[in-house]
Design goal:
Blueprint lengths: L4 H35 L2 E7 L5 H12 L4 E7 L4 E7 L5 H10 L11 H6 L12
Antiparallel strand pairs: 1-3, 2-3
């Protein structure tokens, strides 16, 4: 006594459906893991600075680039806003503001560290003449 042909077809259809469900679930897991890896706890903060020129941009971007938890830094000289992508598990917006202060620049409403500000080139001072 063998298995009838319709029963085999029914089992194959069930197997195909099950395979599709497994494939869809696997793809969903892979995609969600990829999205998590892209974000990986990263947050972004925008900080208003007292930067006035391209040299300020270089100083802030290079000075912040290797700070613990900083993933990316970009300063828009026109708006004076530093956009910083950082690891929220490692640092905080408050710490990032303090680090900008120690470079000699205001960070939001926190004034620059005086000693660091005094060491800035003349073109990087807040009252530097505009070119």
């Amino acid at each position: 006594m063998g298995i009838s042909k319709p029963k085999i077809l029914k089992n194959m259809t069930t197997l195909k459906s099950l395979s599709r469900i497994i494939l869809i679930a696997f793809c969903a897991v892979i995609l969600s893991a990829g999205a998590f890896a892209l974000n990986n706890g990263a947050e972004t903060v925008k900080i208003k600075t007292s930067a006035v020129c391209g040299m300020c941009k270089d100083r802030i971007e290079s000075g912040m680039a290797f700070e613990k938890g900083v993933k990316d830094v970009s300063l828009d000289v026109e708006t004076k806003i530093a956009t910083i992508k950082y690891n929220a598990k490692t640092t905080s917006p408050e710490e990032l503001r303090k680090k900008i202060n120690k470079l000699g620049y205001d960070a939001d409403d926190i004034p620059a560290d005086k000693a660091a500000y005094d060491k800035l080139p003349a073109c990087c001072k807040k009252d530097a003449p505009k070119h």
